[in-house]
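Hi D.,

Good news: the full-assembly prediction came through. Inputs first.
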Amino acid sequence: MPAAPEGPSGTPRLQDAPHHDRTDPADPGPARTDAGEHVADRTPDGSDYAWRGVERALLRMRRAVLLMILPTVLLPAAVLLGWLAGPYWALLVLLPLAPAAFGWYALARNWRSWRYAERADDLLISRGVMWRELTVVPYGRMQLVEVTSGPLERRYGLARLQLHTAAAATDAQIPGLVPAEAERLRDRLTELGEARSAGL
Amino acid sequence: MSGEHEQPGEHEQPGEREPPEPPEPGERPDAHGQCGEDRREPGPFRWLPNRPEGTRLHPITPWRRTWAPIAALAVFAVQDLNRAREWITQLTLGWVLLAMVVLLPFAAAYGFLSWWVTSYQVTDTELRIRSGLFFRRVAHIRLDRIQAVDVTRPLLARVAGVAKLKLDVVGTEAKDELAFLGEADAVALRAELLARAAGIAPEVAPSAGEAPERLLARVPTRMLTVALLLVGTGWSFVAATLLVPWGMWWFTGSPGAAIATGVPMLGGAWVSTLGRYLTEYDWKVAESPDGLRIDHGLLDREHATVPPGRVQAVRVLQPRLWRSRDWLRMELSVAGSDGKSVLLPVADRATAEEVLARVLPGVRLSEAVAGVQPVPGRARWAVPLWWRGYGLGVTGAVLVTRRGLLRREWILVPHAKVQSVRLKQGPWARRLRLADVYADHGANGSTKAGLRDVAEAHAVVSAQAERSRTGRRTAGPERWLT
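Then the structure:
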C-alpha cells in the first residue's frame, strides 16, 4: 500500500479516494491482509507514527451479512410478486441486485478506508470514502475504553474498540480488530490516558 | 439546617433505634426537628417504610407532589411555562376530571411516601440524596465535580418560603434536585456545598458562609425591554398566533381546529415574549471567589453559581436588529446541565467584554471576534448566500467559530475544554476542496467550523489537538481554593 498522503507540514491527512488497486476493488492488495502493516508518516517533530488498517475479516463479515440479508428480503418479495402478479413480475426483484453488487464493491472501499494511528499524544481514526471523517482524540481526554465483540464478530475473530470522552459527540470507534490487538490497544490507551489524564 | 451540619456516621447511637429498624449511623439534629423525632415514631407509623438517614426535605414538599397532576392545569400555567405548554396540549377536560377523582388519593399517598423516603446528607466529599419508594436510590454526588449550583424559587415556592436546589454534575438527572428546602436552608446548604467543593477545610466549611460577591453587570429594565422588542422570533410568534388560528377557522369553519392550533402557538408566543421578559427581568451577574453568580427573574427567582473553570463554551449572539446598537447576548455551556444557560440576556459590548474576561480568564472578546477568518469564496457553491457568515478563528486561549448572516453567532471554546477534534468532508465539499472541522467539548456539544479550505482544516485539526492538550496545563485546580 502506498504511503498515506502527507499534509504540507506532516499533518494527518484524510486518504484520497481508492488509492490503490482500482482494477480489482475486491482485492485489497497484499499489504492490507495484515493489520500490523506500518506506513510511516512523519510528524513535524520528526517522530514516527504508523497508520494501521483493520482486519480483512471485517470485510468478509460485512459481505457475509450482505449475502445473508439479500435472499431474506428478495425471496419473499419474489414469491409474493410471482403469486400476486405473475412469474415475470417476480423478475423485478432482480433489480436490487445491481445496488447489491455496488454494495459488495462499496464495502471493500469502506473497509479499506478505516485506519487508525497512535501518535505520541493522541489517537487518530480516519474512515469513510464518500463522507470522510478524521477523529483526533488526545489520550488524556479518554474517559472510557471499551472492547466489545458480538456473536458474529466473534465468529470472524474480531473485536471492536470504542472510545468515550466527556463529549458525547466524540464518536471514536475502531471495528475489525483482532481481539489481541484490541486488548493491546485498550491497555495502551488506558495506560496513556492515566499518564496524561485531564478531565472536563 | 443552617450551620448545624454534623457528620452522620461519626457517632453511633444504635440504642435509640426501635427494633424494626436496623441499627444505623446516628441521625443529626435538624433545624426543623423532623428527622430525629419521626424516625423513632412508634405505633401508628410502624407500617411506613424505613426512613433513610439524613435530613428531610421541607414538609411542604408532599403537597407539591400531591397536587402535581392537577397543578398541571392551574399552577404550572403560572409557575412553569414550558411544562404547562406540554401538558395543555395533552390534556382535555374529561381527563383532568378523571384524574381529580381517581388519582388524587393515590397522588396524595405517593407524594407523602416519596417525601418520607427522600433525604439528603452532606459528607466531606459528597452530597448523598436518598430517594425512591419501591426502587431505593442513593445518588452520591461528588462535590469536587460540581459544575454549577442552582437555587430556584418559583412564584408559589416564594410564597411558601421554600426553594429548589440543584447541583449540575455530569450524569445527574432531574430527580437529583432537592425540592423543596426552606429558603434559608437552601442558601446555607449552597454556601456549604460550595465551600466544601472549593476545598475549604471540612471543619470550617459548614460555617464558612456565603462568599462575598462583586456585581459585574446588571441589565436595566429599559434595555431588556427594548432588546426583546427588537428580537424577530417573538414578533413572528405573535404574528403567527394572531393570524394562523383565524386562518384555520376561516378555512375549516370549525373553532376546534383554531383552538387546537392556537393554544400551542400562544404558548410559543408567551415563551418567546412575555415569558422571556419575566425570566430575564432584573438580570444580575456577579463575581465571587466561588465563581460566577447569576440572579434573575421577576416572578420566579433563579440563581446559579458556576464555579471557576467550569465553563465549556460561550455562545455570543447578535440578532440583526441589535447590530446598530452593538448589543450582545451571551450563553454559556456547562457540563451536566441540560443545554445552554443564559449568561447575559443583553449587554453592550463593553459589559460583554468585561463579563467574558471573568468567565474565560485571559480571553478578550474583541480580539476573539476580530481574529475570525472568513471562508474561501468557492464555499458559495456549498452554502449559497450564507457562506459569508461562516468563519473560524484561533486565539491563544479559545477556538472561535462564527455563523449566521442576519443573526450572527460566535461560539468560543477554550482549548483546554476541547475533548476531541474531528474533520468531516462530504463528496460535494471534496469537489470544492472544503472540509468541516468540529471541536467537541464536555457540555454535550460541539462547535463546527464549516467550509474551511481542506489544507487549512487539516492543519487546524492537528494543531487543535496539540493546543487542547497543552491548554490544559494552565487550567486551575478542580477545587478552586486549594
